[in-house]
């Protein structure tokens, strides 16, 4: 049996952050990772000379972001790309109407003003909502307050559906009314031209990470924690468990004794989403210059409504779109050709029959990933924002759950993962430790 001061389960950003801080404070730490790589949901494909972030891409606001500070300290190149948070107007966006014709500037301005009017009313609607209200319920209240005709209301309703899908990978009726409360963007958004995964590489430097070590059992008691893998059993005084919500809910990982309250209740109200990326590399550009994104309104845009222009990033005409919520669930078993044809049908509606087939396609399958079961967690009906922190409540003084879903302020992000790892490390140590130690030299 292997013994150490601490075990960290999962080598994603939460686990690597916790392990790096514990090691910096002098503890012996082993990191157990199920996959054959580190990074978890931060992973970069580098095949065919292209850099493609299959998990996280964006820092959704660099102001005050610990990830931005770490990236700067690690010398990671970034590029501004401020439309990742599904804003209607943070940067130039080409909006197309239900007829497939691009909106005039004044029509686009009026549409965006309508979205802001509903958002302003939404804050009060959410505050006054019932405990089990959905995001649909509160958006309908805010829409009804506007006194618009059906068509005008429908355009904004669609936008709100798409926002729930793109931000949380959930159908609007399945997302809690408070499900987007903490979804804030402070400052510019940036992406990583050389790949987000180098954040994980830097954090992991010098750590004892055991790849291909899926943990099947975590036993906790006053004496500490025992983690079972197919190779060896690991014992430590304390453990940080950073596996995604989907793994915590699956029978593949047994926690013994079972999670107590409030962890168990919080976990039952969170759910992994359905959210997949589709990168389309084209032989030539057919869309307008100078726009960050293309969006379409109307029933044809039910699944494919938004495309992000990554050309500047990749130096090759590239559009990124998302299968999110129902679109991700219903295309889950489709092959790439079927998905591409379905997306191209919409692009050809907007840009004409000459739109060429892509020369390369990269499509993710997070729903089928046994070490994630989805892209990230969302709040189901009845959940409150407190569920995130409650999930991280220390268990028996020895077991600490961390990860994106345990952080209330902007959950479902890389900063949330990093900060949750920092909090878990401080709890294991029993004292504060500066988060900056993550990116300062030991
Ligand atoms: C498609 C997609 C797009 C995203 N876009 C963004 C974005 O633009 N910006 C942003 O900030 N965030 C984004 N996110 C979310 C972000 O990637 C995650 O919030 C963050 O990376 C989660 O880190 P984590 O350490 O909590 O979990 P993970 O990265 O999932 O780490 C957990 C680790 O535990 C391992 N593990 C699982 N089961 C076991 C087991 N039984 N034993 C041992 N190890 C196990 C996993 O393999 C994994 O390495 C996106 C995610 C996805 C999937």
UniProtKB/TrEMBL annotation:
Alphabetical list of InterPro entries matching this protein: Amino_oxidase, FAD/NAD-bd_sf, Flavin_amine_oxidase, Flavin_monoamine_oxidase
- Recorded protein name is FAD-dependent oxidoreductase
- Species per Swiss-Prot/TrEMBL record: Microbacterium galbinum
Listed A to Z, the keywords are:
Oxidoreductase
- Identify the residues that the record assigns to the Amine oxidase domain, covering every copy: 13-429
What does the organism's lineage look like at the top? Bacteria, Bacillati, Actinomycetota, Actinomycetes, Micrococcales
Q: Which Pfam families match?
A: Amino_oxidase
User: Could you say which cofactors this protein requires?
Assistant: FAD
């Amino acid at each position: 049996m292997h013994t150490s001061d601490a075990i960290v389960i999962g080598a994603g950003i939460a686990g690597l952050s916790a392990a790096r801080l514990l090691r910096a404070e002098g503890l012996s730490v082993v990191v157990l990772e199920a996959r054959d790589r580190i990074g978890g949901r931060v992973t970069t494909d580098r095949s065919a000379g292209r850099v493609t972030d299959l998990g996280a891409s964006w820092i959704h606001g660099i102001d005050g972001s610990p990830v931005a500070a770490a990236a700067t300290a690690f010398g990671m190149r970034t590029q501004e790309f401020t439309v990742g948070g599904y804003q209607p107007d943070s940067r130039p966006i080409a909006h197309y109407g239900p007829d497939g014709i691009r909106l005039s500037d004044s029509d686009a301005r009026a549409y965006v003003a309508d979205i802001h009017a509903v958002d302003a009313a939404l804050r009060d609607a959410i505050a006054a909502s019932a405990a089990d209200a959905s995001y649909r319920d509160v958006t309908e209240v805010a829409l009804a307050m506007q006194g618009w005709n059906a068509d005008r209301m429908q355009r904004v309703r669609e936008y709100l559906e798409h926002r729930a899908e793109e931000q949380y990978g959930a159908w609007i009726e399945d997302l809690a009314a408070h499900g987007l409360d903490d979804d804030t963007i402070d400052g510019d958004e940036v992406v990583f031209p050389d790949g987000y995964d180098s954040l994980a590489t830097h954090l992991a430097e010098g750590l004892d990470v055991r790849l291909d070590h899926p943990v099947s059992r975590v036993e906790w008691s006053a004496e500490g924690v025992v983690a079972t893998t197919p190779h060896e059993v690991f014992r430590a005084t304390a453990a940080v468990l950073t596996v995604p919500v989907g793994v915590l809910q699956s029978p593949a990982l047994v926690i013994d004794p079972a999670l107590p309250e409030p962890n168990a209740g919080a976990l039952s109200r969170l759910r992994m989403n359905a959210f997949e990326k589709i990168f389309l590399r084209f032989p030539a550009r057919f869309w307008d210059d100078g726009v960050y994104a293309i969006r379409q309104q109307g029933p044809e845009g039910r699944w494919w409504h938004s495309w992000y222009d990554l050309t500047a990033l990749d130096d090759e005409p590239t559009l990124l779109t998302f299968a999110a919520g129902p679109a991700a669930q219903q295309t889950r078993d489709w092959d790439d050709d079927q998905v591409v044809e379905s997306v191209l049908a919409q692009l050809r509606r907007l840009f004409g029959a000459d739109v060429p087939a892509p020369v390369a396609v990269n499509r993710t399958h997070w729903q089928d990933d046994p070490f994630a079961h989805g892209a990230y967690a969302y709040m189901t009906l009845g959940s409150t924002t407190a569920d995130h922190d409650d999930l991280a409540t220390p268990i028996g003084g020895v077991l600490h759950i961390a990860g994106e879903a345990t952080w209330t302020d902007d959950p479902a992000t890389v900063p949330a993962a990093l900060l949750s790892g920092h909090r878990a490390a401080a709890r294991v140590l029993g004292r504060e430790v500066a988060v900056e130690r993550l990116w300062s030299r030991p």
